Amino acid sequence: MLKHILLSFLLLTTTLLAEDARLNHYRDATKWEKDANTNADSAFNLGVTYHKKIKDYDKAIYWYKKAYKLDKGNDVANNLGYLYDDIKKYDDAIKWYKVGIEQGDADSSFNLALLYKRKIKDYPNAIKYYTKAYEMGESGGAFNLAMLYEESLKDYPNAIKYYTKAYKMGDMGGANSLGYLYEHNLKDTKNAELWYKIAVSKNNKRAIGNLAKLYNKQNKKELGSAYMISLINNGYTKSKVLTYLKTKWKLTDKELQKAYKLQLKLDIPKHYRGNIN
Hints:
16 helices
C-alpha cells in the first residue's frame, strides 16, 4: 500500500514538472508550457521567460514566433526585435521592429530609432523613427530626438523644439535638458534658470542640482546651497549633500545653517526639515 502511495505521488509530481526542467524555477512557467502551443499569451510569456530569465534565445525566438502566429495583436514583434537587437542580428531586429510599427506600436518605433542611432549610426533613420514614435504618443521619442539633435548634430534649434515637445507631453526631463542646453551650449543663463525652475517645480532632482550649481557659479552661493540642501532625503543622503557642500563649495557650518534656513522658504515641492549637524 505504501509503495502504491509513493508511486502515485511520484507520478503526480512528474505531471507538475515542466518538460524543460529549467522552467521549474519560474512561477507559472510550467502552466504556460502546458498550453503554449494553442494560447498566444502563454507562448508569449514562455518566450519572455526564455529571453529574460533563462537566456536561451533560440527557445525564446521559437515561442515568440509561436505567439505571433497565434495572435498578431500582442507585443511579440517588439520583443523579437529587441531580442535580435541584443544578439546583434540587426537585419532581423529591423524587420520585426517594423512589423511592430505597422501594428501601431510606439515602443517598436522608439527601439528601432535607438538601434539606428547607437548601433548603426544612421542618424536620418534614427530621426525618422524617433519622430514616428513621438507622433504615436511616446514622449521618449521627442526627448531622444532632441538629444540626437543636441549631442550628435549640434542642431540646437531642433533640440529646443523637441525638448519642448517632450516637456509638453509631461516629461520634466525635457525642461531640465532645455535648461542645461541654454546654460552650457547657448550661454543663456536667463532661459536656463527659467527652464530649470519649471522642472524644479515638479521636483525634478537633476534640475534642482543644476539650478543650485548655476546659482553657485553666479556667486549666489547661499541660494545655490539652499537648493542643494533640499535634495537631502530627496534622492540623496544627508552625508553626500553635506560632504559635497563642505568639500566642493567650501561652506562653513555658519553658511550651512543660513542656507538651511533659506531652503525652508523656497517655493519648492519638498523641503529638508532635519538637522544639518
